[in-house]
Write a structure and sequence with these properties.
- Two copies of one chain form a homodimer.
- By secondary structure, chain A is an alpha/beta fold.
- Chain A contains eight helices and seven strands; from the N terminus they run H-E-H-E-H-E-H-E-E-H-H-E-H-E-H.
- Chain A is globular and about 45 Å long.
- At the A-B interface, helix 1 and helix 5 of A face helix 1 and helix 5 of B.
Chain lengths: ~240, ~240
């Protein structure tokens, strides 16, 4: 929780300390990435606001895979192992990281978990980050892809207000679309326009963990991460 | 955005630096508080996840006050002045703080704005923090009360997973209750039980900025901040 660190504030945390921290993190992330690649594991860093539907997405994903692929997850929260318990119940092998006070996962936390057996024979490793649209964006964990869950109930302007998170995203999952009938003022074009203005290669898939809508497309996107010779949709076009 | 600071991670940011940062912040917050009290301004630190409905709440609050009291706001975002523009349009005098990379407001940022004319003849000053359920919780800004907006679409377990934010809250506004009909599985008792387990004095008001439900009770709560001799509801009971 930025426990007395003045996070991001270069007025009070020395720049050289900032740089050392990120450099150390990047080194460990590179080590994690090499380890995962060596074992044929696709790491996916799943980020988003608290309540954006990250855990529900993993539950729906497990259901969609139906045992075809071996899924593992690391779930990050300040306290409780609730998310790990939920995804385990869905059939995903999961380890919890309770950060206590830290507002994001870092590569060293993930490295520690990887020393256990969690991802060793997995095809995919989901790293469900702490719910936070700010801090996790700049900490590389060793993943192959950054995926951001953005729920329709969060409104249309979050990409403009929290641009770093979306700038670093390979894919945005527009979640909870089953609630759209209850949100008559929601402007889908506005959120897509906002994403297009900050994402270098805008990719959006609209999903509902509840109804299952869009989940097949998301699974398809994941599968193409393993076979990158297949084009990931048509160029820079939105895939909503 | 925890820009290379390793926020909260005492493994890498020295403890003495952590302590100095918070101590400096507390000193400036005390100064802000004295300044606001001297001018008869009630400061309210409004926190919550991105998309929890903080800005919409301020819009509805301005409408409910209907010009009776003088309202001012400081809105914090990484980028854009959209929130300030929205609350200005609702009749609240507002100044924006764009933090660039910082994931929370701190007392010095607020102090800087207070040197302008924003709160000088206001009755209430809302400080709409950066959307984040983690980092803003421990930075005192000089407010009289911490209010956390928690939307019903975020689920029931956030108080357990982000306890520091709720532990430090004087009031939780359960927002977007107009969406409850679209959330048949939402368990209101579960969220109240979770809040009761972390808040020292659990107080919850359920509101909808869209329908106006609960807004009068929230305004009443605010007014009692100015007349503390009147009891704030009945003891530790929930006020949902």
């Amino acid at each position: 929780m930025c426990d007395a660190c003045g996070c991001g504030d270069v007025r009070i945390v020395p720049v050289e300390l900032h740089e050392r921290i990120l450099a150390d993190n990047d080194r460990t992330a590179a080590h994690n990435r090499a380890h995962l690649r060596e074992h044929g594991v696709i790491g996916i860093n799943l980020m988003g606001s608290p309540g954006a539907g990250k855990t529900a997405l993993l539950e729906a994903t497990a259901k969609a895979f139906g045992g075809r692929d071996r899924l593992a997850a690391i779930t990050g929260d300040l306290e409780t192992e609730r998310d790990a318990e939920r995804v385990r119940a869905a059939g995903i092998r999961a380890a919890a990281i309770t950060t206590g006070s830290a507002c994001h996962l870092d590569a060293e936390m993930v490295h520690h978990v990887l020393h256990g057996d969690i991802a060793h024979d997995a095809d995919y490793l989901f790293i469900e980050n702490v719910g936070n649209l700010v801090c996790p964006a700049i900490y590389d964990l060793g993943q192959e892809a950054n995926v951001v869950a953005l729920s329709v109930t969060e409104g249309e302007d979050k990409p403009l207000k929290y641009p770093t998170m979306f700038r670093n995203a390979d894919l945005v999952l527009l979640t909870k679309i089953d609630l759209l009938p209850a949100l008559p003022d929601y402007d889908r074009e506005a959120v897509e326009s906002a994403l297009a203005s900050v994402m270098p290669r805008p990719r959006v898939i609209a999903v509902s963990a509840r109804s299952g809508e869009g989940i097949a497309e998301w699974v398809n996107w994941m599968e193409r991460l393993r076979s990158p010779q297949q084009p990931q949709t048509n160029g820079v076009a939105m895939t909503t």
